[in-house]
Amino acid sequence: MKRWLWMAVMVASMVCGTAAAVPAGSVADTATQIVTLAGNHRLVMLGEYHGTAETPLLVTDLMERYSRDTAPVRLGLELPMSENAALARYLRSSGDADARAALRTRRSGR
Question: What whole-number distance in Å separates Cα of residue 52 and Cα of residue 18?
Fold first, then answer.
């Protein structure tokens, strides 16, 4: 489970550029609202404008929050099909630093 969470966080952070201009409280406030409104529902779908810094931060926050309980957490991402082989290699790996570095060097990770 931790490897899935790490991958989700890493891929979400790879998709966007720097997020230094995003107020930290706004993402946490939005995540709290989503968790509150979702209640017992286990499916949350988010849409976004490509290239924003806020959405990957929000997804990171939500994944961290939802991974605290014992229910499985899954994250679906829209990525080019050309990235499937690299993601499959990472998922077969131990998730160590070398595997993360190899995934980060992919074209979509820049």
Answer: 9
The per-residue pLDDT for range 91-105, each reduced to its tens digit, is 999 999 999 898 888
Residue 47 CA to residue 52 CA, distance in Å, equals 11
Interatomic CA distance for residues 50 and 74, integer angstroms? 21
Separation of alpha carbons 101 and 20, rounded Å? 22
Q: Which two tokens stand for residue 46?
A: 């988010």
Q: 23-63, pLDDT tens digit by residue?
A: 657 889 999 999 999 998 878 888 887 778 888 899 999 99
- Regarding pTM above 0.70, the answer is no
How distant, in Å, are the alpha carbons of 50, 51, 102, 107 from that of 54? 10, 9, 25, 21
